[in-house]
Design goal:
By secondary structure, the chain is an all-alpha fold. It is built from 5 helices and no strands. Helix content is about 75%, strand content about 0%.
Amino acid sequence: MSLIDQVKRKLDITWVDEDTDRRVADIVDLATPVLKHRLGITEPEFDFSKAGLENMLFLALCLYEWNHSANEFWNNYADDIATCQAMHEVAYYKAKEGEGDAATS
């Protein structure tokens, strides 16, 4: 299922409307770089549509944005955001270590 379809499902959007589709697409376009930055995701093409903590946070952020309350998302999900940041920080440094090992071999 595409990310847009996941967001529509999270928002309980069951109708077809061009304006609604544009608003959902705008929210997805806005949430993607913001959440990548806040979570410390360094992969340029990170896929938020895959199941996991990142997907859950993405859908929640879109829900908050849909309801014009994105500022409340950051406080309400602070623990999950911190967990995700730590996971990506560890992955980043493991990848860096691997690059260093390859360069010295």
